[in-house]
Amino acid sequence: MAGGVPVTVLAPPATICYAGAGDLTPDDPSGVIEQVIETIDGKTYLHLRVTFDPSFVDNTYGANASAGWANRMMARPKGEMPGGPMGGKAGPMGGKAGKAAHTFDDLLGSDHVELVLVDGKGNTVLDFKVDYVSENPAAPCGYGTLGVSGGEGKMLQGDASAIVGVATSIDRNLNGCGYCLTTDSPATDAAFTADAAAPNWDYRVIYEVWIDFSVFKGHGFGGAYIPQVHASPSMASTNTIDVDPDPCPPDWDTPYCPPSVIEEGGNCFDTPIGDGGCPEGTVPDIKNEGQSCVPVNY
């Protein structure tokens, strides 16, 4: 039950791990997909969460950028610009990256994840890219994910209307949790210990999508795949790592999620008071598992 709105898990959460050459921590997955089929208020959705290895990219920047970013800068060949040989988003040495090893602006522009979904017969039903964060005047903080319809987000195959909700961890940090921090992220340590001033800040790079299950047209859900993990810049020697499914380490057999965000960022949303039912003209908000209500045409 989320905010009084019935939520039924139809298929238990499953975790698929991915690995690829160039990962700085080969004993850990380069990326993970967690997937669950659930019904919220009588409608069935496929819910996917993609988490990148924090040693590849994280949500630390500015004065509080993690040590991995400083190591990446020191490891660059002499004269190479941040973000790759051509400079990328960060600009030449002495520019923004000269002030910080990783900046908020580094998360803008090209960061995304591509997801490929197939039905039970192996047919590709959806292939799309999800934007991580872009300028978004409609967002409270002025920045947020543009989903599959802006920034780096776009449809490569299939019907965009089947994607009924999109969220990213940085969007949730900035807007859902109200930490509008675009210069310095909250302070942390190598273990990503929460900052008392921003206890719900998620330091991981995460993409979430909710898919209308009817898009599979009765053939069932066959699987979700990510062909790559990408961040520009990343902490690795390359900004894109091609990945393939790989057996999960034993401690990844259950979906990974720290206690502070175990309820889909629930600490950052208001839970309706009373019976939790949505008033006439509104529906449960899929982006927070039905913990609040939004207008029908939202």
Report the order of strands and helices.
EEEHHEEEEEEHEEEEEEE
Q: Major sheet, described briefly?
A: 6 strands, antiparallel
Number of helices: 3
* Uncertain regions spanning at least 5 consecutive residues: 77-98, 253-267, 269-276
Which percent range fits the helix content?
Answer: under 10%
Count of β-strands: 16
On the 0-100 scale, what is the average pLDDT?
79
Structural class: mainly beta
Q: Biggest sheet: strands side by side, in what order?
A: 9-10-3-2-1-14
**Taking Cα atoms only, what radius of gyration do you get, to the nearest Å?**
19 Å
Q: Tell me the domain tally.
A: 1
Amino-to-carboxy terminus distance: 22 Å
Q: What is the approximate shape?
A: globular
As a percent range, the share of strand residues is 25-35%
Characteristic terms for this protein:
single chain, 298 residues, mainly beta, 4-stranded antiparallel beta sheet, 16 strands
Describe, in plain words, how this protein is organized in 3D.
- This protein has 298 residues and is mostly beta strands.
- The chain has one domain.
- Helices cover 7% and strands 30% of the residues.
- A six-stranded antiparallel β-sheet has the order 9-10-3-2-1-14. Strands 8-5-4-11 form a four-stranded antiparallel β-sheet, with no helix packed on it. Strands 6-7 form a two-stranded antiparallel ribbon.
- The two termini are 22 Å apart.
